[in-house]
Write a structure and sequence with these properties.
The chain is an alpha/beta fold and 291 residues long. It has twelve helices and nine strands. The chain has a seven-stranded mixed β-sheet with strand order 1-9-8-2-5-3-4, sandwiched between helices. Strands 6-7 form a two-stranded antiparallel sheet. The relative contact order is 0.17.
């Protein structure tokens, strides 16, 4: 399917009521569970590694449910990209101090783990507060889809999303100007600038940058978690209390604490975490692949 046709479908679907769109997304998730064998295997392995205490049948059910949320996250992308600001404000329930970045004398780093409603959190930072926002994204090889992602993530804010492959200097300049930083801290990008830090007890290549950047730029760190509500009832985005003990002078200890916090949020809502990502792809020297 061409990217322009896919974007046209997203645009058409965004007119549907959210409960109907959610049902369609769950159907897409069922198809993906059956057809995307490699992603299903990754999710199954991740859940096995991270939640080994669950019985095998419960882990399988969790993976099936995860694909339903994954299908919804794909189908509802058009809603975030094309729906009116008023409609999105009605659908997104914000909890906590969303306007901290506007008032803070220090720049704010939002730590946002990869839950299915990640892009809803991005929309909330634009719709419910006025501070300019910077973020990093994975540049797409398809220029049409790359442009669509950039437009979708910047449609309500005059900030910027910087390709991960670029230098960090433009991002640092933006933060020094007072922009908030929407930071996604929980993916495996290899060993560069990372350390093997426990994630559910399994060593995981984890970027040390959140701690190091927060310390170097004197940032306030505020965790943010987004979730999709059942049956198309909308979304919830929780802006949690800023961390008072992060960063410290020990980036490794900070990163371990960050992973423990992410673990606690996953236990709260396990099916909506991004299990299809190879979180343990990079291994310490001499260790075999876990996939």
């Amino acid at each position: 399917m061409g990217s322009r046709l896919l974007l046209a479908i997203f645009w058409l679907l965004h007119w549907l009521p959210l409960p109907l769109l959610a049902g369609l997304g769950r159907g897409v998730g069922w198809l993906l569970y059956g057809l995307a064998a490699s992603r299903r295997a990754i999710a199954t392995r991740n859940v096995e590694l991270c939640l080994p205490h669950l019985p095998a049948a419960q882990r399988r059910a969790l993976v099936r449910e995860h694909f339903e949320w994954l299908g919804r996250s794909i189908v509802e992308r058009g809603l975030l990209w094309y729906a009116s600001p008023d409609r999105l404000r009605r659908l997104i329930r914000v909890e906590g101090d969303v306007s901290l970045a506007e008032r803070s004398e220090r720049p704010v780093m939002w730590l946002v783990p990869h839950f299915m409603a990640l892009d809803v959190a991005g929309a909330a930072t634009q719709l419910f507060q006025r501070q300019q926002v910077a973020s990093i994204y994975q540049e797409q090889s398809d220029p049409v889809m790359d442009a669509a992602i950039r437009r979708g993530r910047l449609r309500f804010n005059q900030g910027e999303v910087f390709p991960r492959s670029d230098s960090a200097k433009p991002l640092i300049r933006a933060i020094r100007k007072g922009w908030a930083f929407f930071n996604l801290p929980d993916m495996d990008f290899g060993e560069r600038d990372a350390a093997f830090v426990p994630f559910f007890g399994v060593p995981a290549a984890t970027l040390l940058a959140p701690s190091r950047m927060a310390r170097a730029l004197d940032m306030v760190v505020q965790p943010v978690v987004a979730e999709m509500l059942p049956r198309g009832a909308g979304y919830r985005v929780r802006f949690l209390d800023p961390w008072t003990d992060f960063p410290s002078d020990d980036p490794l200890a900070d990163t371990a604490a960050m992973n423990r916090w992410i673990e606690s949020e996953i236990r709260r809502n396990p099916a909506q975490y991004l299990w299809v990502h190879k979180r343990f792809k990079t291994r310490p020297a001499g260790e075999p692949s876990l996939y």
